[in-house]
Write a structure and sequence with these properties.
Number of strands: 5
Radius of gyration: 26 Å
Low-confidence stretches: none
CATH superfamily of the largest domain: MetI-like
Structural class: mainly alpha
Largest sheet: 3 strands, antiparallel
Number of domains: 2
Helix content: 55-70%
Shape: elongated
Strand order of the largest sheet: 1-3-2
Length: 346
């Protein structure tokens, strides 16, 4: 809760010191002063920054105070806070329990929660596909690099790992999109931009387009792929040098049996924890990848909202990403405890 409060405070401060007036952007350059003032009053922008901050935290909090006076800035609007239940009520106000209110978009006037609900599945599908690709391909390549240690394949895997870890997501997205969708587009049949579901040219229905997932998932999976290759290789080399592996060979077990039944299972612990941790870190690069490939997820929405100075959408998406980070990091800590009993002792 302290982390979420810190994120909410930081986001509020950052987006309230930026130049620009949301009311003027809503009305356009030809708007008159009276119309702008009316919009500012409707959005609550005519209040002091400190009061806006308190109201913002009050909207986010699951337990919040609301005045019963319709003229009050903290008036209870049932259309915003449904469903809710009153805990304590007096003549002046009420303490209620409700879902966090992320407010409405300045541009579309839609609830920010609705916008997030429409786009978060696309982000999850992209992130999940990327990490699955990175995990399976990385473990396979890492094991092969360990088996053929000091070979050309091993050296190439080390070079690719170093290159992949240092490659920025936005540059990788531009480069991969240009090569596979523009230069080799006739051969690959892949599009530079596209979403998971698309409406056909005749408007007759929505069709699934899995090929649009290939380039963004591959681009987003490059960095975790490089990490998994190195972890798998080093872990496998460490396990293969253990005494129980030599004992298994001495008993006459085949190399394939030793590899699959003994070495592989014991070498996956650091890889699993790294993969789970990288799933959260993917959110950092997903903004660039989604926008460049036109994948309409949270990253695409946040860039569009920034371009339109749609602060409620930006602030809501940042908070949701923060919640995802926190949840995944907690799950990673629990995974550590399950995989290594020594963690539970501390």
């Amino acid at each position: 809760m302290l982390i979420l409060w810190g994120v909410a405070t930081l986001v509020f401060i950052l987006f309230n010191i930026l130049p620009g007036d949301p009311a003027r952007m809503l009305m356009g350059q030809r708007s008159d002063v009276a119309s702008i003032e009316a919009i500012r009053k409707d959005l609550g922008l005519d209040r002091s920054k400190s009061l806006q901050y308190v109201k913002y935290l009050n909207d986010l909090s699951p337990v919040s105070y609301h005045a019963l006076d319709t003229a009050s800035y903290f008036h209870l609007d049932t259309s915003k806070y449904e469903p809710f239940s009153t805990v304590i009520e007096s003549r002046k106000g009420a303490l209620i329990v409700k879902a966090p209110y992320l407010r409405r978009s300045y541009q579309s006037r839609k609830q920010v929660t609705e916008i997030i609900a429409e786009t978060i599945p696309n982000t999850f599908i992209l992130a999940f596909s990327s990490i699955v690709f990175a995990a399976f391909a990385g473990i396979l390549l890492g094991i092969l690099a360990a088996i053929y240690k000091d070979s050309i394949f091993d050296r190439l895997s080390i070079f690719f790992s170093a290159f992949g870890m240092s490659l920025p997501s936005f540059f990788a997205a531009i480069l991969i999109g240009w090569i596979f969708a523009f230069v080799l587009g006739d051969i690959t049949g892949l599009n530079l931009t596209g979403n998971l579901y698309e409406i056909d040219d005749y408007g007759e229905g929505v069709h699934l387009r899995l090929k649009n997932l290939i380039l963004p998932a591959f681009t987003l999976g490059i960095r975790p792929l490089a990490i998994v290759i190195q972890l798998s290789r080093n872990s496998m080399l460490d396990v293969l040098s253990q005494d129980y592996i030599r004992t298994a060979y001495a008993k006459g077990l085949k190399f394939s049996r030793v590899l699959l039944r003994h070495a592989l299972r014991n070498s996956l612990n650091p890889v699993i924890t790294a993969v789970s941790g990288w799933f959260a870190s993917l959110m950092a690069g997903i903004v660039f990848v989604e926008y460049i490939f036109g994948w309409k997820g949270l990253g695409y929405v946040i860039v569009e909202a920034l371009n339109q100075y749609d602060l409620p959408v930006v602030m809501g998406v940042v908070l949701i990403i923060s919640v995802m980070f926190i949840i995944i990091n907690v799950l990673v800590d629990l995974t550590y405890a399950l995989l290594d009993p020594r963690v539970r002792l501390h």
